[in-house]
UniProtKB/TrEMBL annotation:
Organism: Rhizobium mayense
Pfam family, one: CPT
Protein name: Chloramphenicol phosphotransferase
Alphabetical list of InterPro entries matching this protein: CPT, P-loop_NTPase
Highest taxon listed in the record's lineage: Bacteria
Length: 216
């Protein structure tokens, strides 16, 4: 499932709690060969210094303008690492939440696409209903998002959660789209596997993004 000697890259893009991590686990456990996880959560927890977190995980809405000058280079470093792994023949799966809703929009996704030019990339949009996302937040709180986990009587769905739903799938250019509201991780991974086995349409989503002037 790769082009030439390069390892295949699968990028899962969607909001927090949309089920990306569960799909990553299935891919790593069931797909042929080693699949390295270079996702955002690992990058934040293990690589980014605590005083610069959430780094690439900054939510939509310009919440941390003080960090924004660093976010493009953080993403650049992450994607250069993805490219390096692929060029060495290693398959890579990445779970991310791209958006362009910063205090100063910077079209990071386009830059990331250009950094993977010439490599086999499958860009997957991971959708999930807001109801399921809120249910998952109530069941399993995680670190920095705890304050937005359950909402309140006056704000049943917190504004940051709604912002993720609205912003993460702009511009919506994908090779494959899946909905975890009704599809289990194992079946989502199977859809990805089938897509990788088929002849790729050209240009791919990342080729289209790399050729664009902006991600809007």
């Amino acid at each position: 499932m790769s082009t030439g000697n390069a390892g295949q890259i699968v990028i899962l893009n969607g909001p927090p709690r949309s089920g990306k991590s569960s799909i990553v686990e299935v891919i790593q456990e069931t797909f042929e060969g080693p699949w390295l996880n270079l996702g955002v959560d690992a990058y934040i927890r293990e690589i980014t210094p605590s005083r610069y977190r959430p780094g690439v995980g900054v939510r939509p809405g310009g919440e941390r303008p003080d960090l924004e000058p660093l976010i493009p280079v953080f993403y650049a470093a992450l994607y250069e690492s993805i490219a390096a792994h692929s060029r060495l023949g290693l398959n890579v799966v990445v779970d991310v939440g791209h958006h362009n809703s910063y205090a100063s929009p910077n079209n990071i996704l386009v830059d990331c696409a250009r950094r993977l030019f010439g490599l086999p990339v499958l860009f997957v949009g991971v959708h999930c209903s807001i109801e399921i996302i809120m249910e998952r937040r109530r069941r399993s709180p995680i670190g920095r998002e705890n304050i937005y986990l359950t909402g309140s009587e006056h704000e049943p769905v917190p504004a940051p959660v709604l912002a993720w739903q609205r912003e993460v799938h702009i511009p919506g250019i994908y090779d494959l789209e899946i909905d975890t509201s009704s599809t289990k991780p194992l079946d989502c991974a199977a859809m990805i596997h089938r897509r990788l086995e088929n002849v790729r349409e050209r240009p791919t989503a990342f080729e289209r993004l790399a050729a664009s002037e902006s991600s809007e």
